[in-house]
Amino acid sequence: MTTFERGQNLVGVQYYLDSNVLIDFLDNTQTPSDISNLLRFWTEGWIGLARTDVVDTERTDGQDDETVARRLAETADFPETYGPAVWGHSRWDRSYYATGEDEMRLNAVFAMLFPGKDRNAANKNDLRDAMHVSTAIRYAGYAFVTSDIKLVKKDSVIQNLSGSAGMRIWTPTQALSETRSRVAAMRKLHSLLPERGPLPEWPAEADIGQGANGGVE
């Protein structure tokens, strides 16, 4: 019997999760179904999920030692990528010294997300949002998944940003729609070419669903 590993990424799409998405999953008693389903596609081996180092920075900032330890344990199963260190915002054991390219990328992302604002005078949340997105770009994320609609509205400018490789900024609903479409296409391909081997049993073909990614009003 073929076994599939969490994060095996059969459909070849890597999503980076914003802190608010993980908080909805970890801290809320009623997790939105789109987030729960997206994470199940990950545990079944269909997609890749990751978090930047900023996630744990945001979840542990200003917390007591017991809370810090608990929250770090909660996210330990999610692969973490280290971004360039930003003074006052990065944990030194979870970041690296920035290169000139890293600095240019972060500056460009910040300028696209928050036009007219000075990065050096930015509030904590704005700068960390830019750090999330910049790090996801550095590691070739397919999309940065967030519940922050202000960021989602910047999808097109980030997609078209030089050096972003077309990375998207999507809601969990949009990421789930893309995932369902890819899973349906792979199931179809394997039905035509059974020599490609088995796929995870979940979800059943009739339950995959379809849907195009819509824009944000």
Secondary structure layout:
Elements: E1 14-17, H1 19-26, H2 33-43, E2 48-52, H3 53-60, H4 65-75, E3 80-81, E4 83-84, E5 95-96, H5 100-113, H6 124-138, E6 143-145, H7 149-152, H8 155-159, E7 168-170, H9 172-192
Parallel strand pairs: 1-2, 1-6, 2-3, 4-5, 6-7
Helix pairs in contact: 2-9, 5-6
Protein name: PIN domain-containing protein
- CATH homologous superfamily designation: 5'-nuclease
Report the mean per-residue pLDDT as an integer. Answer: 92
Shape: globular
Number of DSSP strand runs: 7
- CA-based gyration radius: 18 Å
The N- to C-terminal Cα distance equals: 46 Å
Protein name: PIN domain-containing protein
Describe the protein's architecture and organization.
- This is PIN domain-containing protein.
- It comes from Catenulispora acidiphila (strain DSM 44928 / JCM 14897 / NBRC 102108 / NRRL B-24433 / ID139908).
- The protein has helices at 19-26, 33-43, 53-60, 65-75, 100-113, 124-138, 149-152, 155-159, 172-192; strands at 14-17, 48-52, 80-81, 83-84, 95-96, 143-145, 168-170.
- The chain has 217 residues and is of the alpha/beta class.
- The protein has one domain: 3-Layer(aba) Sandwich (Rossmann fold).
- α2 crosses α9 (172-192).
- The chain is globular and about 55 Å long.
- Mean pLDDT is 92; it is low at 210-217.
